[in-house]
Structure formats: structure tokens, C-alpha cells
Amino acid sequence: MAWYLARSPRAAARFEAAAERAVSFIESFPEACPLCDNRHRRCALRRYPYGLIYRLDGDRVRVVAVAHDRQLPGYWSDRV
């Protein structure tokens, strides 16, 4: 978010809206996105090279990372 905000408030607002749409989709269809490991799923952000990494904890959905597509898979896992 900070990277987009430093370049353009408009771009940052669009990135935030894309993330909010992804969260809404995840809330409605928590098992629709593919697994990226044995516990976490990844929901791609439209028009952005990022994905929301999340897991299902009982009846809750917990977003654990906003991961860039060009990073190594699972680079975020030690932060969880």
C-alpha cells in the first residue's frame, strides 16, 4: 500500500479497493481459492501482482499476508 501511495493516491485507492473486493470474495466463498500449502490459500488481486494469503480457522477467515507474485513461494510463511 505504501509503495502505491508514494507514487499516486489514486493508485493506492485502487489497490485498496482490489484488496477489499478480494476480502469480500473470500468471506463469501472461503474455499474457492487454491491451496498454496497444506493450510493456506491464495486469492489473487485483480490487476495487481499480489495475492491475499489466508487460512480458515474454524468459522473464521484470517488473512495472514499480502504476498507479491514475484517473490519465492512461501517467503511469507515465517511471519505467520
Q: If you had to describe this structure to a student in words, what would you say it looks like?
A:
- The chain is an alpha+beta fold.
- It has a single domain (2-79), classed as YaeB-like fold, CATH 3.30.2310.
- Helix content is 32%, strand content 28%.
- It is built from two helices and three strands.
- It has helices at residues 2-7, 9-28, and strands at residues 40-44, 50-57, 60-68.
- Strands 1-2-3 form a three-stranded antiparallel sheet.
- The radius of gyration is 13 Å and the shape is globular.
- 12% of the residues are buried.
CATH class: Alpha Beta
Helix content: 25-40%
Number of strands: 3
- CATH topology name, in short, is YaeB-like fold
- The radius of gyration computed from the alpha-carbon positions, rounded to a whole number of angstroms, is 13 Å
Count of runs of 4 or more consecutive helical residues: 2
Main attributes of the structure:
80 residues, 3-stranded antiparallel β-sheet, 3 strands
Draw up the topology in text:
Blueprint: H1 2-7, H2 9-28, E1 40-44, E2 50-57, E3 60-68
Antiparallel strand pairs: 1-2, 2-3
Question: In a nutshell, what does this entry contain?
Answer:
The chain is of the alpha+beta class.
